[in-house]
Write a structure and sequence with these properties.
Elements (H helix, E strand, L loop, with lengths): L1 E7 L10 H10 L4 E8 L2 H6 L8 E8 L12 H19 L17 H22 L3 H4 L2 H12 L5 H4 L3 H14 L18 E4 L6 H11 L3 E5 L3 H8 L5 H21 L2 E4 L2 H9 L7 E3 L10 H5 L5 E8 L8 H14 L4 E5 L7 H15 L15 E4 L9 H6 L1 E6 L8 H8 L3 E5 L4 H5 L4 E3 L4 H12 L2 H18 L2 H18 L6 E2 L26 E2 L26
Parallel strand pairs: 1-2, 1-4, 2-3, 4-5, 5-6, 6-7, 8-9, 8-11, 9-10, 11-12, 12-13
Antiparallel strand pairs: 14-15
Helix pairs in contact: 1-21, 3-4, 3-6, 6-8, 8-11, 9-11, 10-11, 14-15, 14-19, 17-20
């Protein structure tokens, strides 16, 4: 089988989202071939280079979403008229109905959700076909005509209030966002020797990465599946609260329409947890297409500790993660103050590095708070004092790797107020640690009754749960063993790869054969594709000559060979 893996801001680059799970997926399915189509988000990401590629990666093609390239395409009069018509329809859909509402939830304003989705699809694929005919639309999407078309849509009767209030800076910002988001329309990835040659497209997110899959499906009929471990639309809602209302509304409308279109056209939509799955349903995904595939993590580094969990310090609580406000270490420190009142010998190890723009300042604030809450303690008047709270990083002499951090404490704590899939919590479960977590994101789903869960921003409840485990070593041992068993059953790389492999086979087995087989004289060969063509194996018998039209590689006796070799980045 040949899979087109579509990524945004991640694999095969060294940094970014979805890097680890994509690499593990490709290596885990070594019997299949992968073509990687990657969209980069920054110059720094491109300069860092790629991860070492697995031998079954046949080709890599990249495009930039951070730098505008002039395609030097000059549209003629007819092409300009078609562009204006399609772009005006796209803008009108964004301005109709409640701004920022979920496409699936809209029931008023711009018509029914189905009608609005059809209008959006007509405009999107109309622009795609025009871009394919003329060689690209980068210049047209950055033109003054595009901004004026957007302005007319915002001022049109029936436009929602936020759109009507858009000013020139808002229009320019929205037009720039649309230009970046629609850059995949101008790529030459959709021909028979590109995405048209794969058996299916797998988009590693529902955002920009899904657009090339939608276009491949539109032009060549390649089936599409979408995987999300964090819904891009939700991320937009959470990360753009300070944008002007008009800009936020129009961009959210576009993201919502594109997400709904990807969900509607995909054969399957997979979520990393139930929390993400609920968001996907809210954003328009058909429940019948949804599958839950938990992230796959490598359990081998944690095996030795997990199989002998009794070496932990019984008076130590451990927190491991990225230091940022969402982790709510302030509540953890106040909870630890309550723990110390009941268990005076207890120590707290906070292990992590600052993350995000506020991470360093937040770490400094937490250090100051710890010094105020817990004065240094000394065993005698001539001995230097020691604070019961320590701030450490992985990689030092005491904690060379992450497993050492989890192994150092009797209880592992997660104190977040915002969390997606709690990777650190799963690592603690692999180690057989007893855990206390806040009820956020997918925590309850991951824990499944093998740890204690308390409300977020509740230091008293957090403290009581920690004290209960510190005082009961037998309970800690039972919960830790159950947690490790659950993690090994649900959250390993092996189960993740196997789940995706099964979905791949199910999609391809239902997809129509898109190849046209020709005989030696170039005439169509009747009955050339037997019913067994859907069996996922490579046929060894001699096969007839293959036409350029693409389709499942195993249906014709061998995969289409890539015309572009995989380049090797510097330093890889």
């Amino acid at each position: 089988m040949r899979i087109g893996l579509l990524t945004e801001d991640g694999y095969p680059y060294v940094s970014g989202d979805a890097r680890l799970w994509c690499d593990r997926l490709v290596r885990g399915l070594a019997q299949h071939e992968f073509d990687v189509y990657a969209l980069s988000r920054s110059e720094h990401q491109e300069d860092e280079g790629w991860v070492p590629l697995s031998p079954n990666v046949r080709r890599v093609r990249t495009a930039s979403l951070w730098m505008a390239e002039d395609d030097e395409v000059v549209l003629g009069r007819r092409a300009r008229r078609r562009f204006t018509e399609y772009f005006a329809e796209l803008a009108a859909v964004l301005c109709d109905g409640p701004g920022g509402a979920s496409p699936a939830a809209e029931a008023s304003g711009g018509g029914t959700p189905t009608a609005e989705a059809d209008r959006f699809a007509t405009a999107l694929y109309g622009l795609a076909e025009l871009a394919r005919e003329v060689g690209g639309l980068a210049g047209a999407l950055r033109s003054e005509a595009a901004v004026r078309t957007l302005e007319r849509a915002c001022r049109a009767p029936g436009a929602h209030r936020a759109a009507r209030e858009a000013r020139v800076p808002d229009l320019l910002a929205v037009a720039a966002h649309l230009e970046r988001a629609l850059r995949p329309l101008s790529l030459d990835w959709y021909e028979d020797d590109g995405l048209g040659a794969v058996d299916l497209c797998h988009a590693a997110s529902g955002g920009a990465a899904a657009l090339p899959g939608l276009l491949a499906r539109h032009f060549t009929g390649v089936p599409l599946m979408v995987t999300e471990y964090g819904v891009r639309l939700r991320t937009h809602y959470l990360t753009a609260p300070d944008a002007p209302p008009a800009e936020r509304s129009l961009v959210a409308a576009f993201q919502g329409r594109l997400t709904a279109e990807a969900y509607a056209r995909a054969e399957f939509v997979t979520a990393g947890n139930t929390h993400t799955r609920r968001w996907q349903e809210r954003c328009g995904a058909d429940r019948g297409k949804l599958r839950t595939v938990y992230p796959g993590m490598d359990a081998r580094p944690f095996a030795e500790v997990g199989e002998s969990p009794d070496h932990a310090d019984p008076d130590t609580i451990v927190w491991v993660g990225r230091v940022e406000p969402a982790k709510d270490l302030v509540s953890l420190l106040h909870a630890f103050a309550e723990v110390r009142k009941q268990q005076p010998r207890t120590r707290l190890r906070i292990v992590g590095t600052p993350a995000g723009p506020e991470g360093a300042a937040y770490l400094g604030h937490c250090r100051t708070l710890a010094a105020q809450l817990f004065p240094d303690e000394a065993e005698g008047p001539h001995v230097a004092g020691d604070n019961p709270v320590s701030f450490e990083e992985i990689g030092g002499p005491e904690l060379p790797v992450a497993v050492d951090a989890y192994a150092s404490g009797a209880v592992t704590v997660l104190s977040s107020v915002v969390e997606g899939f709690p990777v650190g919590l799963v690592e603690a479960m692999f180690c057989g640690s007893a855990t206390v977590s806040t009820d956020v994101g997918a925590v309850v789903e991951v824990i499944g009754g093998t740890g204690l869960v308390v409300p977020p921003r509740n230091p008293q409840a957090l403290a009581e749960a920690c004290v209960a485990l510190l005082r009961d070593p037998q309970r800690r041992a039972r919960l830790g063993a159950a947690a490790r068993a659950r993690a090994l059953e649900l959250f390993t790389v092996e189960q993740n790869v196997e789940a995706f492999h099964g979905i791949y086979l199910e999609i391809v087995s239902r997809a129509p054969v898109r190849r046209v087989l020709l005989d030696g004289e170039g005439a169509p060969l009747p009955f050339a594709v037997p019913a067994e063509a859907h069996v996922p194996v490579h046929w060894s018998a001699a096969s007839p000559r293959l036409a350029a039209r693409s389709g499942p590689g195993w249906a014709a006796g061998g995969p289409v060979r890539a015309t572009t070799p995989v380049p090797t980045p510097e330093g890889a």
